[in-house]
Amino acid sequence: MLKSAFTPIYWVLSPKPKSPKISQHFITNTFSNSTPHVRQNSSSKQNLTITPSSAYIHLPFCRKRCHYCDFPIVALGSASTQTHDDPRVINYIQWLCREINATKVEENLDSETPLQTVFFGGGTPSLVPPSMVSSVLETLKMKFGLSESAEISMEMDPGTFDYRKMQDMMLLGVNRVSLGVQAFQEKLLKSCGRAHGLEEVHEAIDIVKKCGVENWSIDLIASLPHQTSDMWEESLRLAIEAQPTHVSVYDLQIEQGTKFGRLYAPGEFPLPSETQSADFYKMASRMLCDASYNHYEISSYCKKGYECRHNFTYWKNKPFYAFGLGSTSFVGGLRFARPRKLNEYMKFVENLENGSVNSSSDDDVNTKDTALDVVMLSLRTARGLDLKRFQESFGSSLVYSLFEVYKPYVESGHMVFLDVQRRAIRIEDINNSLLYDINSERRVAYMRLSDPNGFLLSNELIALAFGVIDSWKDYPSALQEAT
Q1: Per the database record, which ranges form the Radical SAM core domain (predicted)?
Q2: Which sequence spans correspond to the domains of the chain?
Q3: Contact, 211 vs 204, CB < 8 A?
Q4: CA atoms within 13 A on the CB side of 194
Q5: In this structure, what DSSP letter does residue 183 have?
Q6: 252 Cβ neighbours under 8 A, 6+ residues apart
Q7: Whole-structure pTM over 0.90, yes or no?
Q8: Cα-flanking dihedrals φ and ψ of residue 183, to 5°?
């Protein structure tokens, strides 16, 4: 599957042209499934004691590897759709359940909270038989509890499920589907190495609708090789006509080690230019918003009330469990990446069971990394950065520095400052008192990127915050102030 907002944020595919190295480096090393198998602290103080209420489950099986994919997957074969007796799938599910059972619930966390969201990502989770998905859900329920109203999402590819399988998944509690369409042109699907064709796309959409799945998303990729503006417009139009409650739009990133990485250089023909990629993004924003989809995150659009609850765990930098090959959890202020290769993953699970792997740490939280996390994740959303909460965590001096570095971008139209009522504040009305007067309703309460121009430059603009935070000198006193 594509890097998406319906899989954890550590699989980021930013919907814009490639960005400065500082931003891309941070995104890759903090949130990518290519993260080395090491422990890394990065959390706000409150996250150290919050019990995770979300879990990501990595099901790595695909019929074949797409040309853009650098995820940890297991290719079963182009014809594979029936996997109930495939020993590779059976064995993996057993190891996955063993990992869940062996996971230590930290004693210093708050009282247990049942899981509110579960996300099955991959890979192509819809290749896994419902009976095995049931085993995973039952293991999660026994270990952590599972709310009756939990959002249970699954990535599903056209051609990997039928009406009966969709019904069986729904009976298990799957109530949100992320459908990996990617394009509505046969030519583009083949050139991407997708295992499905256009006929299977329409069949999958028909199945999801006939089964009565209320909450479902269509995933699309922009900036594919040989993709034209007319093709992209057609894909957006057909996606809107299908009437999903959610649409995710991603810009192709050329990754080293993939087939596309060997064939193409970023920014060179037959890939669209950066200008064309920006036009694709603006077209998506315009067409989807005109169709009453709310652009609530850089890559994500939804009908009212259909934001992905699981993804908000990532956007709000809240802790979450993660299980399976290459996945990265965030518990007790710690990001912990599992191995990307099966043999190493199985050894990891064995070590977890015998207590020789410790996924917790007594190290101090890296405050600068925490601030970077919060800024990056917040500015990817339409809500933006809550300055009051940020000041409570990191002190007023850092807030003021961010305020100063972004003031010019309010005038250029890339950044928006908002008051307590989320009304835009004009650049000529902005002064220091609006930042510090906490009793004024007209104080600067939020800063967010504009849509679409600010979102298009998100990596560049977030990199400015990285520079400010990296040169931050008084963070120990700031933390004391916030305590």
Answers
A1: 47-294
A2: 21-315, 367-482
A3: no
A4: 28
A5: -
A6: 13, 68, 221, 222, 223, 224, 260, 271
A7: no
A8: -160, 155
Question: CB-based contacts of 230: which residues, under 8 Å, 6+ apart?
Answer: none
Do the Cβ atoms of 177 and 208 come closer than 8 Å?
A: yes
Chain centroid to Cα 317, Å, comes to 11
Spatial distance between the Cα atoms of 470 and 141, rounded to a whole number of angstroms: 41
Q: What is the pLDDT of residues 392-450, one digit of tens each?
A: 888 888 988 998 899 899 989 999 999 888 998 887 776 655 555 555 566 788 999 99
Instruction: Tell which residue, 269, 271, 301, has the closest CA to residue 285.
Output: 301
Residue 243 pLDDT exceeds 90: yes
| CA atoms 66, 67, 72, 74: torsion sign | positive
Reply yes or no: is the peptide bond before residue 20 cis, omega within 30 of 0: no
Which secondary-structure segment (H or E) carries 329?
A: strand 328-331
pLDDT in tens, 138-151: 999 999 999 999 99
The closest alpha carbon to 178, from 117, 131, 237, belongs to 117
375: left (phi over 0), alpha (psi -120 to 50) or beta: alpha
Q: Where are the alpha helices (DSSP H) in 180-222?
A: 186-191, 198-210
For residue 322, list its beta bridge partners: 56
HEC string of 29-73? HHHCCCCCCCEEECCCHHHHCCCCCEEEEEECEECCCCCCCCCCC
**Mind spelling out the 3-state secondary structure of 250-269?**
EECCCCCCCHHHHHCCCCCC
> How far is it, in rounded angstroms, from Cα 361 to Cα 414?
39
CA distance 114 to 478: 34
Q: Which of 22, 28, 23 is nearest to 337 (CA)?
A: 28
For residue 122, what are the contacts with CB-CB under 8 A and spacing of at least 6?
A: 1, 7, 58, 59, 60, 61, 62, 71, 73, 155
Q: CB–CB of 288/295 below 8 Å?
A: yes
Give buried/exposed letters for 132-171 (b at 16+ CB in 10 A, else e). bbebbbebbbebbebeeebbbbbbbbbbbbeeebbbbbbe
3-state secondary structure of 96: helix
Rounded to a whole number of angstroms, the distance between the first and last alpha carbons of the chain is 42
Banded model confidence at residue 301, pLDDT cuts 50, 70, 90: very high
Pick the CATH number of 21-315 from 3.30.70.360, 3.40.50.300, 3.80.30.20, 3.40.250.10: 3.80.30.20
Tens digit of each residue's pLDDT (9 = 90 or more) over 150-194: 999 999 999 999 999 999 999 999 999 999 999 999 999 999 999
The answer to whether 442 touches 419, Cβ cutoff 8 Å, is yes
3-state secondary structure of 153: strand
